[in-house]
Amino acid sequence: MRAMLIAILMLAAVSAQAAPVLVWDRDSGETLNDPLGAGMVGTEFAVARALQALGHQVTTLSSLPVDLSGYDAIFVLTSWGC
After folding, report:
1. Is the entire prediction scored with pTM above 0.85?
2. Which of 20, 27, 49, 58 has its CA 20 to 30 A from that of 9?
3. How would you write the pLDDT of the chain (82 residues) with one tens digit per residue?
């Protein structure tokens, strides 16, 4: 989780304008209870929300597209653990 936050902060620092970002939700449908009250959410929920709050254009997909040239950054979420 710490590495993910560092990556988000780096993306925010480097990008002066909105960047097209892909969040690849590759966790086979894993969910967890959102501690902020959004209910049961996927592992991509907080990352996508944080990137959107920073002004980035976020696309969330469960399969990786063939052409990635339209994205400035790609976040791959494989699952979560305690």
Report:
1. no
2. 27
3. 566 666 766 666 555 578 899 999 998 888 888 888 889 998 889 899 999 998 999 999 999 999 999 999 999 988 766 6
